[in-house]
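A common beginner's mistake is to predict each chain separately and then try to dock the pieces by hand. The better habit, illustrated here, is to supply every component at once so that their relative placement is modeled jointly.
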Amino acid sequence: MKRLLGFIPALLIVASLTPGVRAEEAATPADAGIQAPSGLKKNYEAYDLGELYVKGEKLPTSQEVTQMSVVTQEEIEATHSQNVADALSHVPGITVFTGAKNQPSISLQGLNQTETLILIDGVPYYETNYGLLNLKTIPVSMIDKIVVQKGVSSVLYGPNSVGGVINIITRKPTDRPSLELRAEYGDYRADEESISHGMKVGPFSYWFGYDRQDSKGWYLSNSFQPQETQITSRPGKTIYEVIEGGGVRNNSAFHMDSMWGKVGIEPTPGSEYYLNMNYTSANFGAPASLLQDMIFTSPGSQFSQLWTWPAYINMGADLSGQQKVTDWLTLKGKLFYHDHTDVGDFFSDAALTKEIARSTYKDNTIGGNILSEMNVAATDTLRAAFNYRRDDHQQTALTYLPFQEAVSYTGSLAIENQFDPIKPLSIVTGVAYDWWEVTKSNQDETNSSGAFTGFQELKTPSANRVDPMVGTTYTFDDKTKLFASWAEKIRFPTLQQLYSGEYGGNVNLKPEKADNYVVGASRPITQYATAEASFFVHDVADMINRNAPSPVAQYLNYGRIFIWGAEATGRIYPMKDLSFGFGYTYTNATDQSPNTPTSRVDYVPTSKVDLSAKYLIPVIKVQTDLTATYVGRMWDQLPTESNPTTQALRTGDYFIMGARISKVFCDHYEGYFVAQNLFNKNYETQVGFPAPGRMLFVGVRYSY
Amino acid sequence: MAVEHNWIKCGLAALAIHVGLLALPVREKVYPVGEQRIIEVVVMRQETPPTSSPRQVERSKPLTRRFVARQAVPRVNREIPPAPVPKPAERKDEPPSAGAGNVLDEQIVSQAAPDPGGGEGVAIAGISVGGGKAGLGGGGTGIGTGAGGKGNGAGTGGEGGGPVEAGFGDADGPQFIYQERPEYPFVDMRLQREGKVIVRLTIDEKGKLQKVDVVEATDQAFAGSAVKALKRSRFRPARRNGASVACRAPYTIRFGF
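With all components supplied together, the output reads:
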């Protein structure tokens, strides 16, 4: 704890010692301008009539009181991200893992994706059983930017934002008609094509996009060494065999078609109504664990970790509206309906020739929210929000069994006040009443031969809690901003954690509760750099996790997981057309539960470093982007109170680099070449799941 | 069902709160001087100049044509960055007033050469504007004669006269057909940092943006945002005597709260 507290003065000292630039200076270009092109001097005035004034929108204080990152379109292109998971893997504080289901999952400052609220244009997106959004199925060609709010977040978002909030903002039409076409070809017959178009006609506007991704698989690193995999059959025996020999990763093919569109009207300034729609259809394999896999062949309970996903379909329709009622009152509202279907095929052999079962999951969510924002006085803004949604999950583990179903309701009612007593000081306070209740859960029952005998009604838990939040910012004349905040957060169990039955479900789970603290500072450092640093704490009670690494291990509430750390980010512009970005996150997580056999916590890298460099080579006008990521070692498998003899396993640390070279030609075209995992590093984000080796891509983009 | 009661209660409570908030007597927000409540990104568009004279738009009071003409010449040299236009050597020989006499201001910048491609120009007060041949090349120079307030410049225009210097807001200057709004850089928005970017645009006779030079910027985030938006914008070229010409024009984008 002393080490922990020591960070606070250290941060403040660093913030105060770095040279700043005063606001007045920054606003005077003659004094604070960046380097001018040669031959041009600054001793003249521009023609004032040829001038544009762009007003920035001051962010709500509830977003200012914690560390944030924004992934822009330029950064998405520079890192050659194909989906949201790729884009987030370069964000300081976020680690991306890909494991058994070939579905990437994130950790944000040591907290899992289930603890993070993920929004698309402000609407929560997830499939209702696991409570997770498959980030691989969101193509970046539809995205304008991704805003990551870490730790403390506004009470207006509702529950399930323990780790933070990630808001994926999609593109929208501009006044000028736009058209973008992209075609890309990569290693081992991987290709991607996309098209998007949008325009405005008076107050009306529309935008649509289509993205197709296809890959026959991806290459393992040359340094990959085949190993024997433990395959356990129940009933049956355990065998060891080599199921991966190198080269193209077995069962790593991927195909996706994704369509996104929106139509809208902006009748008056400050008012707008949009209907957003999306449809994604994917099918993909799931490379097996090279450490251990399980096969269950009991009648009525067939399942295997040797699997593929022949159908994975998402669709959504979101109606969003904003109406400026008066100068002091704005109302916002959303109605949404999301539907998800996936089909899993399970096999009893690594070659995927003997299918033993097919499961089908059907999920849908319907909900809405309303938010009012009132400028009560010059120094006070009041916001109130009501969120409500209904989650429905239906599944059949075997084709001949009827669908079992679970239904839950989640809601919140929140009020937040932003008080700005003096210009540099802002204080935000909020309180939310979050509630959740399962209203229906039945489960298939079978006899010893696997025949359906009826439904079993299961316990339907409920919970509610009042979650407060307080935060403040203080901005000095030199634009140094100090921020500090505290919030209590709650995360309700997912339907899968409650009702996955013989696969670990536990109807007695309690919600996770967390106290989040953040203190930090951000500031410009002359006109050549900006920096931000923070110290954070996540004190989580009743964290939900499996009590063993097995896919059938039961979910339990852990007593207390205490996470603390520090994060520093920044960007440097040393000269024209050259910039560097950096981010470092230190995270220390300990399991302080009573009777725990270890204090370690899985999937929390102690250190993560993100680096980037961008340079436009003069004369030839070739853009070069370099990115590098270092992720420290992580525990992946740990002993638990109920399984104290489980071997502790962890991934090795890894450092990977990527490069992108691009050039614009004929005004509207851009050609590019990309190398990912430049040094062909063999590494794992989860034990038993080697990551792709070096991958090369070449592409061309037309943009109007 | 308990949950139904629960969410119905919550819904009613939410409704009551929102209705209650709407009913609250709220006074109009008064902003202290220098502070504005930001609702949305607002683009302040330039107004159409009230006169065809490119310079009069800057004046607060009517000016005589003579005065305008006299002032216009040095203004071109003072305001527009020096580089590609050779400094007129003849200024040493003849004071601006000598030949500028009663030559119309419009002639200085808008009268096209008789042969747009021939490299001839009209010389006034020792300064000539190169023939209208578009392209990147040196401006023409020549020596004009003028006396008694009635000057008639005649000079030799430069070969393939380069882009003329012009200004947005001038009657015959370039104009935006479509102006993309720059995005306020997130890093600066978060720091509540205001800024300014001065660029010099090179626009060809077809209205195509050839080049954007950043002359000044508070930081590169502002500069990047401004340049990105300008590259997506569309322009109407500058005109001289009714003909479209290539031009260079300074332009300023301010970012503020």
